[in-house]
Amino acid sequence: MDDLTLVIPAKNEAESLPEVMDELLEYKIKKIVVIPIEDKKTREAIEKFDCKIISQEGKGFGNALIQGINSVETKFFCIFNADGSFNPIYLSQLKDKVQLNHDFVFCSRYEAGGGSEDDTMLTYIGNKFFTGLCNLLFGLKITDVLFTYVMGSTKAFKELNMSFNDFSFCIELPIKAKKKNFILGNLPSIERSRIAGIKKVNEFRDGLLILISILRLLILKK
Among residues 190, 113, 99, 191, which one has the least CA distance to residue 151? Predict the structure, then answer.
């Protein structure tokens, strides 16, 4: 997979990220890890691994991903979590689908064969609501719009002019890709439990931000 780079946003992941990097050793794949400047523990925890570490210039999950993906030099990129929830066994299937006839492929916990060890009733309802809303308003045909295990064309991503610095990145990506007439696909996958067991998403705060962002994207023509 010499033409693929994993982009790993990592904030306060000193406990989880080394295990994730160990698991990735069997994959011949490039890795970019984006770490906040002040997070010295996470940086020190992965110094022995073969990866490119980028100091995050701004704040937020989306900001880290935008900076990381814009630094990718390979043909394809894949967003990969630092907490152990993403299973690398899906990388080859994602790659096959992207190479075949898609610009972006989104892993889905809600396709047949998918699932989650981390979902609560609240997050399940929220995910279903926002996925349905985005599909209704933008015709996405994505089955899990809030799951950011995504692989795509680096060139296509750089045409999207992504700007959402918070967790709203997850809906900005497919919506802007759809507006650009890029081809989107789904791949069933199982979300694993986080290694450290700490969820960084605040359901109510992030849910409100996502709703506001959907309305903003509905108004924007591009």
Answer: 99
Q: Which domain holds residue 70?
A: 4-219
Q: What is the CATH number of the domain that holds 41?
A: 3.90.550.10
Instruction: Specify the 3-state DSSP secondary structure of 11.
Output: coil
* 4-9 and 190-191 beta bridge pairing: unpaired
Q: How many CB atoms lie within 10 A of CB 34?
A: 25
Q: How many domains does the chain have?
A: 1
Query: Do residues 65 and 169 touch, judged by C-beta distance below 8 A?
Result: yes
pLDDT along the chain (222 residues), means of 10: 94 96 95 97 95 95 97 97 96 95 96 93 92 95 96 97 95 96 97 79 81 90 61
> Do 108 and 144 contact (CB within 8 A), yes or no?
yes
Of 193, 209, 211, the residue nearest 85 (C-alpha):
193
Residue 27: phi and psi, rounded to 5, are -105, 125
- Closest by CA position to 157, among listed 172, 143, 168: 172
Task: Give this prediction's pTM.
Answer: 0.94
Say if residue 113 is exposed, middle or buried (CB neighbours under 10 Å; 0-12, 13-18, 19+).
exposed
